[in-house]
Amino acid sequence: MSYPQLLFTPTCRSAPQWVAQLSGGFYMTAMTALTRRRSDNPHQENWDVYFSDIHVGTIGQRVGVPTSADQWGWRVGFFPGMDPAAHCQGSAATFEEARATFELAWQKLQPTLSEAQFEEWRRSRDFHAWKNRMWAEKCRMPTQNQNGQSTCFCGAPISIGCEEHIHTVHRGIGA
Length: 175
Hints:
With 175 residues, the protein is α+β, with helices and mostly antiparallel strands. Helices cover 29% and strands 27% of the residues. The strands form three sheets. Strands 3-4-5-6-7 form a five-stranded antiparallel sheet.
């Protein structure tokens, strides 16, 4: 289970210039909007970071880097919904530095995002979860039938343009 985190840490030495400008040396802020969940990888420590129900980034141990290099990496951004050129990433010596720099990057990025961008990600998440459930239940997709018709696992008749059915009936299936 994820809990809001309280950060109080010095500016990261590996942080970009704008981080030092934002933080002014030390900062203290509550991460009430961001939560993190440990990933399922048993071989390395990785954390998925969420803003509400949107997976907005990752903080984790870097693989294959020399011991003299930063051992932690972070990336902020999500797709679809966000231009991949707007994603940002970096590295840090410790988890605490990576988390602090991640939060500062998110504080800069989040005000530039619209609800439509978050909604695009949610729709994609729900579509892929619905599609996987259809396959798991051995249901045929409408595109697999010559007439373009099929039956959803919930019993509703669907056609090739079934996005509205997924959005209204199966909203949050991938959450």
